[in-house]
Amino acid sequence: MGQKINLLQGHVAELIAAGEVVERPSSIVKELIENAIDAGANAITVEIGEGGIRLIRITDNGGGIGREDVPTAFLRHATSKIACEEDLSHIGTLGFRGEALAAIAAVCRVELLTRTPDSQLGTRYCIEGGVGGECEDAGCPQGTTIIARDIFYNTPARMKFLKKNVTEGNAVESVVQKTALSHPQISFRFIRDGVDKLHTPGTGRLKDAVRELFGRSVADNLIEVSHEAPPYRVSGYISKPQYAKSNRTLQHFYVNGRFVKTKTGMAALEQGYKNVLMAGKFPACFLFIEMPNELVDVNVHPAKIEVRFAAENDVFRAVYTAAKSAILNFSDQTAALSPAQAKAAAEQPLPLEKGPGGWRPAAPSTGGSAVRGTGELHSPTAAPRTPDGRYGIGVSGAAADLLRRSATLRAAAQRERPESAAERPVLKAVSQQPSRPSGVFSAGADCRPGSAPHQAASPRPAVPSAPAEPAAEEDGQLQWAAPSAGGVEGEVPTVVGELFHTYILACTEDRFFLVDKHAAHERILFERLKREYRQIARQILLEPVAVTLAPEEISAVLEHRELLQNAGFIAEELGVSAMVVREIPSFLQNCDIAGIFEEVASNLAKGEQEVSASHIDWLFNSIACRAAIKGGNRSTQYELQQLMEDIYRYDIVKYCPHGRPIVIEQTKKDIEKLFGRL
Predict the structure, then answer these.
(1) For 403, phi and psi rounded to 5 degrees?
(2) Could you give the C-alpha distances from 84 to 76, 81, 87, 91, 421, in angstroms and in order?
(3) Is omega for the bond preceding 231 within 30 degrees of 0, making it cis?
(4) Where are the beta strands (DSSP E) in 283-385?
(5) Residue 243: its pLDDT value, please?
(6) Helix 593-606 to helix 617-627 angle, to the nearest 10 degrees?
(7) Residue 287 · residue 85 · CB < 8 Å
(8) What is the Cα–Cα distance from 678 to 673, expressed in whole angstroms?
């Protein structure tokens, strides 16, 4: 016989319903702030204690609540926002369900103080565990103050799922930030454990709010967006192409003033940045999408942070067009060319760039000697040239225009010439003459993969005692450098070339090797981090690096400070939404420190990875991947040979940390079979 069906008691039903609305302190803050905004407030103060677990106090100067309505406000489905079914399709307020106050009162000890503009006295009302008292007279300013204490005091099963105070506090701060951005005309103040953490000016200018919340570095790297495609309007700011982040934490979308998470908006924005952002980088945005209320359904998520659009394709098109137009109108768009655009620009003999003194010739690309179509070898130290081939200083105004026109004519003439086979090299020859380390190794011996400070000396693989003759181009034919005669056990292959600036070509007397240089360097750094964890040599930065992070990311970094210190990072809080990195692992010099730290902080905040001392390979992997030589970048002979030596120093270096192969090896016999010689 089945179990009997029982009707739940009212108190139990209230607790269950509260679980849909109140997940943590930040949920309470979000609901109460939305009520304050709907009440017409232009100044809102949020105060929390112990992460909001022990105290939440929200004060506004809105219209207040009439005394006769106060007890009713704490009943389920009691609301002033809608009255009938038709109103659901025209919701223009942030709150409308009438569930928030009832849900909060079911799991907290709540005190309310309120006064309307036409009242001489205010009203005080207390409710605990869903059981209310009597309304009392109270002296208070116009508006409403709601105090919630001891969240989940009567549901210990829910209490144990709350996180540390600092984590919950940062979640509350994130809610205040997002809401302050959506209503820059309202002055928001956030007090945390008695300390003022943020205070927006309420000027009505979005950029002022961004500057206050995220700092000048973010505000000064924004492009204004304004686009109308009736019935849609998209406005706000997006980041300059060169100011890209390693995650989406700075992407803020608002639909009719409500913060939402929209995959449609994210996809449209990133499509607008196509060909101007590197892979794995994401733009920042503060975008407001306005449309008739009947074209968006906000009643599809308990927390109302997800919405459903009536015409999703139209929304995508509006956001995409707005972002794309803003990027194209950005005067400094040349600072963020994609690799394909950079290649096309390089083929035009007009290497001009805008500098402090006006237009000037751009510096030539650096790196090792490369075989060019014209046979000219470009030195890394060569001075910049003007378009007419002479060395010179920056030019501006009419002179710059003249240079452009001259270069355009010269480019047209060059396109008339047929290109010879010798002018289409696929393989870059690398000189066998050892050169000064550059790029990722330029900081000295401790930057070379495999070398480590305070490390016991170990036998190094054999290196050619005398360099072979440099590779050269003769009669249009690429000459290979001759491999050295090894003769010792475990002979290190000699580097003879580099393919596509990505793969190392090396050989011994009877074997040929094709090596992915990024994967190889990544694995070497990964092994080094594992080997030197807790004892890694750190470098104090002469100029500390400021990194903009979300509150939850700052919380995660502070929570795992010891883990990061053992990995070589020393960082501390810097204002409301940033941290400053003061020390780094010594081999990360000349790397994108901000990008590496952002990625690590993002992974820690997501909580998807285990962070115990025995399960932190993901951390080493993140650092190594970002710090390794990038495929497509030029490398010197010294760097390539050093990588080959380190590959053969470590037996484990066969696959990169992602599982991709590092080396493809072919014997002489294998190659002869390919050509039908056997």
Answers:
(1) -65, -40
(2) 16, 10, 6, 11, 77
(3) yes
(4) 285-290, 296-297, 308-309, 352-355, 358-361
(5) 86
(6) 150
(7) no
(8) 5
Q: In sequence order, what are the residues at sequence separation of 6 or more whose Cβ sits closer than 8 angstroms to the Cβ of residue 341?
A: 275, 276
The CATH number given to 534-615 is 3.30.1370.100
How many whole angstroms separate alpha carbon 238 and alpha carbon 219? 10
As annotated, the residues of the chain forming the CATH 3.30.565.10 domain(s) are 10-199
The answer, yes or no, to whether residue 236 has pLDDT greater than 90, is yes
CB atoms within 10 A of CB 269: 26
Which residues pair with residue 239 across a beta bridge?
A: 222
Residue 165 main-chain phi, psi, to 5 deg: -55, -40
φ, ψ of residue 192 to 5 degrees: the values are: -125, 115
What pLDDT, on the 0 to 100 scale, is given for residue 14? Answer: 61
Distance (Å, rounded) from C-alpha 225 to C-alpha 543?
33
Summarised one tens digit per residue, pLDDT across range 359-372 is: 333 444 433 333 33
CATH code at 10-199: 3.30.565.10
What SS3 class is residue 234? strand
Q: Where in the chain is the domain with CATH 3.30.230.10?
A: 221-335
CATH 3.40.50.10440 fits 221-335, yes or no: no
Paired tokens of 391: 């060395």
598 class by beta-carbon count within 10 Å (0-12 exposed, 13-18 middle, 19+ buried): buried
Confidence of residue 492 (pLDDT cuts 50, 70, 90): confident
Domain with CATH 3.30.1370.100 in the chain: 534-615
The dihedral through the CA atoms of 277, 280, 284, 287 has a sign that is: positive
Confidence check: pLDDT of 436 > 50: no
| Cα separations in angstroms, 79 against 74, 99, 218, 255, 284 | 9, 8, 39, 22, 36
Cα distance between residue 510 and residue 672, in whole Å: 11
> Pairing state of beta strands 511-516 and 503-507?
antiparallel
Q: Is the pLDDT of residue 389 over 50?
A: no
| 23, 53 Cβ separation under 8 angstroms | no
* Residue 346, number of CB atoms within 10 A of its CB: 14
135 with 70: CB under 8 angstroms? yes
pLDDT value, residue 143: 95
Using N-to-C axis directions, what is the helix angle for 617-627 and 517-532, rounded to 10°?
140
CB within 8 A of 640, min separation 6: which ones?
430, 495, 498, 504, 517
| pLDDT for the residue numbered 556 | 84
132: helix, strand or coil:
strand
DSSP state of 347: T
The Cα 183–Cα 205 span in angstroms is 9
Q: Positive or negative CA dihedral for 101, 106, 107, 111?
A: positive
Q: Quick one: DSSP state of residue 501? A: T
Number of Cβ within 10 Å of residue 533's Cβ equals 16
Decide: 67 and 123 in contact? Cβ < 8 Å.
yes
CATH for 428-524+633-674 (1.10.620.20, 3.40.50.2000, 1.20.1070.10, 3.30.1540.20): 3.30.1540.20
Tell me the C-alpha distance between 253 and 445, whole Å: 47
